[in-house]
Write a structure and sequence with these properties.
heterodimer, A: 140 residues, mainly beta, 2 domains, five-stranded antiparallel β-sheet, B: 395 residues, Peroxisomal Thiolase, Chain A, domain 1, 14 helices, 17% strand
Chain lengths: 140, 395
């Protein structure tokens, strides 16, 4: 039996800059060159102004928990010995949302509104996953 | 409203329904189940496969129009389309079938849904190689699945959690829905949960799956298929049984449609909220006129949020609304009188349509027949808050 591995993101030409930045320790999102609107998940067109040009803009990496789920049953073998585990939707300061596993938060600690900040967890094939944890100021 | 949204109110009808037994375990393939249900629906309508000139294969079953052509021997299939909104597909597909029939592209449309949710596509067993891949999942495959957000119960748990946070909704409210559906299933000999009563305490004691959703908040994993036949109101008059009129029908989509976490408001089932006024407007009725509701209930929270999105109660009021037996038989608005996806079977929402037709035909067991049932709303919900709403009435 091989040890089950975490499902890997499979970057596309559109999303590759997001993952490359994450591997370099930066959290980025698309910013429309036409109207400056930030967006995530990556799309080839701005739904506000329909411009197809964009830049990758670095984000603060800070936000708060918008909602969360505590999973008690393993639906994927990688998490079989990690249950219960917390996954949260993070609302970033810039207004975008991202999903993160919260390995440093127990089911008893997690709550909507908690301030969080990003770090990056390197996977073994040059990919790094943005993972959020409680903000340092909060943890004292 | 009327000019814009009422191209065919009452101009189409459901004239045949059919199903396989709903089971946990089957030796048959998904295609065989679909063909069995199709023949049953055609027989119910007094039609033969030769009469079928439109088919609407269901996305989640992975069945093609060509599968029906080669097996039913369809000689002149004139219209086919597959709607790709997951659980919302079945009622949306009825809308497309109505368009085809009303425009004269086809005369008799066959719609089939259902899968082997127990024997093959079983979510809880993490057996994924037999699950039909759905293109809409590509975005979260890349950005959410690596974080452990892998299956529907987790996605909807975050919406339910946020709903609890904003509106004070409680797990007991979800329990009221589960208990109502179980009561109805115990009046339905064909329901998987027939003979298995459940109290609110049982619900609260059921194990947590994806907090805040418990085992008894989840729909069943079942094998089975169900089918209907749609035709024009004119042709419906010649059929074997009393036709059921499609008085209003509409679909709606969420923004963005590819993840619940990205919704501007994840607590609202936007697709249903957008579709409801069109369907009700087409039928010329309001939620207060409805005798019953068949609500697609992949999870109990979906039922609660659907009642809000349809306008049966205000935003955030779904919890108090389901208290006190209101949605049970005998209450003001009986919901899912066959047991729903949580206690009858999960047949991709097609079983909800069959129950609505049976209630309107007066074909159900007397104990769960809603007296004087004249108008029923049926919903389907799928993917990430996509929705479709249909109003059925006695023709």
């Amino acid at each position: 039996m091989t040890t089950p591995t975490r499902p890997r993101p499979k970057p596309t030409p559109l999303t590759e800059p997001f993952w490359r930045a994450a591997a370099e320790g930066r959290l980025v999102a698309q910013r429309c060159r036409g109207c400056n609107t930030l967006r995530h998940y990556p799309r080839p067109m701005c739904p506000e102004c329909h411009d197809m040009r964009w830049d990758w803009s670095e984000l603060s990496g800070r936000g708060e928990i918008h909602s969360y789920v505590v999973t008690h049953r393993a639906f994927h073998p990688f998490w079989a010995d990690r249950i219960p585990y917390v996954v949260a939707t993070i609302e970033l300061e810039e207004g975008l949302r991202m999903v993160s596993e919260m390995p440093e938060l127990t089911p008893d600690e997690v709550a909507i509104g908690l301030p969080v900040e990003v770090r990056f967890e390197p996977l073994d094939d040059g990919i790094a996953l943005p993972v959020f944890r409680l903000s340092k100021s909060r943890r004292g | 409203m009327t000019e814009k949204t009422a191209p065919f109110p009452g101009r189409c009808a459901i004239v045949g329904i059919g199903q396989t037994p709903y089971t946990r375990g089957t030796d048959r393939t998904t295609l065989e189940l679909h063909l069995e249900a199709a023949l049953a629906a055609l027989s119910d309508a007094g039609l033969s496969p030769d009469d079928v000139d439109a088919v609407m294969p269901n996305e989640m079953a992975g069945i093609l129009a060509e599968d029906f052509i080669v097996n039913l021997g369809l000689r002149d299939l004139r219209f086919s389309s597959t709607i790709r909104t997951g659980g919302a597909s079945f009622v949306s597909a009825i809308q497309s079938a109505c368009l085809a029939v009303h425009c004269g592209l086809a005369n008799h449309a066959l719609l089939v849904a259902g899968r082997r949710g127990y024997s093959a596509q079983r979510v809880s067993k993490a057996v994924e190689d037999t699950i039909v891949p759905m293109p809409i999942m590509r975005t979260i495959e890349e950005f959410e699945r690596p974080c452990g957000n892998t299956v529907a119960v987790q996605w909807f748990a975050q919406a339910a959690r946020r709903h609890m946070h904003e509106f004070g909704t409680r797990s007991e409210h979800f329990g009221q829905i589960a208990v109502a559906c179980r009561k109805h299933a115990n009046l339905n000999p064909h329901a998987l949960m027939h003979g298995k009563p459940m109290s609110l305490a049982d619900h609260q004691a059921s194990r947590m799956i994806a907090d805040p959703l418990r085992l008894f908040d989840c729909s069943l994993e079942t094998d089975g298929a169900a089918a209907i036949v749609v035709t024009s109101a004119e042709r419906a008059r010649d059929r074997a049984k009393r036709p059921v009129a499609i008085l209003g029908i509409a679909e709606g989509h969420g923004d963005p449609p590819d993840s619940i976490t990205q919704k501007r408001d994840m607590t609202e089932i936007e697709g249903l909220r957008r579709a409801a006024p069109h369907a009700f407007g087409m039928a010329g009725v309001s939620p207060g006129d409805l005798d019953r509701a068949q609500i697609y209930d992949g999870f109990t929270w979906i039922t609660l949020a659907s009642l809000e999105a349809l306008g049966f109660c205000d935003r955030g009021e779904g919890g108090p609304f389901v208290e006190g037996g209101r949605i049970e038989l005998g209450g003001a608005l009986p919901v899912n009188t066959a047991g729903g996806l949580v206690s009858e079977a999960h047949v991709s929402g097609a079983n909800h349509v069959l129950e609505a037709v049976r209630q309107l035909r007066r074909e159900v067991e007397p104990a769960r027949q809603v007296a004087d049932c004249e108008t029923v709303v049926v919903t389907s919900e799928g993917d990430f808050h996509e929705g479709a709403v249909m109003i059925l009435g006695r023709a």
